[in-house]
Write a structure and sequence with these properties.
Length: about 160
């Protein structure tokens, strides 16, 4: 479909595509999880920054682009998967409400930084889907997947 194609912009003399596809937030126990999904157009290293804007001030939560603030540093961690950068903010309370921003930049990428915002309000957050725990513990999931053929083989033998 045409919507997936990058249309060249004459001004830049280069195709410009939105790298960040989607930004979503959910509650995982007492933690806030913010998922920043992107389309990987390059194998260049990816840098990221998660920040929050509240009271018209930007606070960096976790970043490889700039320095994160002390109050968040001990509570935040980020995991990177294929096409997904995940922020986990522990002990999430109403004081952590605000506009969360995900900023991604691929090294040597001419399109510049890609930014997307989401407003996070505790009462309006949904619980994260159950499988998110499996993603955090990939080895367990891998074991499960590897054991499936064995389970099927055992069933076959018992016949």
């Amino acid at each position: 479909s045409l919507s997936n194609l990058c249309l060249p912009l004459p001004v830049l003399q280069a195709a410009h595509c939105q790298m960040i596809k989607d930004l979503s937030a959910c509650l995982l126990g007492q933690s806030l999880r913010v998922d920043c999904r992107y389309e990987n157009k390059t194998s260049n290293p990816l840098t990221y920054e998660f920040s929050i804007t509240k009271d018209n001030r930007k606070h960096v939560i976790h970043s490889t682009i700039s320095v994160s603030e002390n109050i968040y540093r001990s509570r935040a961690n980020v995991t990177m998967h294929k096409n997904l950068v995940c922020l986990y903010l522990q002990s999430f309370t109403t004081s952590d409400e605000g506009v969360y921003m995900c900023e991604l930049k691929a090294t040597n990428d001419y399109t510049g930084n890609q930014i997307k915002n989401i407003t996070v309000i505790k009462d309006k957050l949904e619980k994260c889907a159950g499988f998110s725990l499996l993603i955090q513990n990939t080895s367990w999931l891998l074991l499960l997947l590897l054991s499936l053929p064995l389970l099927q083989a055992v069933d076959f033998v018992s016949l």
